[in-house]
Amino acid sequence: MTTPPSDESRATPARTVTEAKALAALAHPYRARLMDALKVDGPSTATELARRTGQAVGSASHHLKVLHDAGLVAEAPELARDRRERWWRLVTRQLRWSRHEFADDTAAVAAAQAAEALHLQRQFDRVRAWQANAESAPEWDRTAFATETWLHLTPAELAELGEEITAVLVRWGQRPTPDDGAEREPVLVFGRGFPAQP
């Protein structure tokens, strides 16, 4: 049985990733799924994560160790019922990185590019999966949204806009779950802002 993320874990500040080892760990599709499962479900065992992601327990355990060695997950021994049970939690729910910070380290730049490409592909895949199945959930189909806006900005203004949008998402992510009996589903919201031409 998974434990939903606590209000305390939701309020953990974002971590800026500065190590190539952590970026390389994030650039693996299954490890990215494990990180997402821990964000959605909260602390879990390898068995629960394997069930959630449709993988073997041994595979989940191996990839959790890689994430642990990279400083991205930590054991949560206080949740174990006995010495054999191992629980895992995220070190922080929010990660950020910038290729600019790794300009002198070609291995780190390559890892950052691979991690970013993986996350972008996973976003596309999730949107396609939703579009293919949206009619099966009409109550969600009416509220799911996509938005696109062209703006004229300086780099500083784009940074400010990004901070404002991130602050809104963080506020919603950190809010205590209302005790109103309503059933809530995991919802993915993502946005990107970058220079482009029509």
TrEMBL record:
Tell me the superkingdom of the source: Bacteria
Key word Cell division present in the record? no
User: SUPFAM superfamilies from the xrefs?
Assistant: Winged helix' DNA-binding domain
Q: Which CDD domains does the annotation name?
A: HTH_ARSR
Q: Which InterPro entries match?
A: ArsR-like_HTH, HTH_ArsR_DNA-bd_dom, HTH_MetalResp_TranReg, WH-like_DNA-bd_sf, WH_DNA-bd_sf
Is Acyltransferase set as a keyword in this record?
no
Residues in HTH arsR-type domain copies: 21-116
> Known Gene3D superfamilies for this protein?
Winged helix-like DNA-binding domain superfamily/Winged helix DNA-binding domain (1.10.10.10)
Swiss-Prot/TrEMBL keywords = DNA-binding, Transcription, Transcription regulation
Name by which UniProt lists this protein? Helix-turn-helix domain-containing protein
Q: Which organism is it from?
A: Isoptericola peretonis
Show the taxonomic lineage. Answer: Bacteria, Bacillati, Actinomycetota, Actinomycetes, Micrococcales
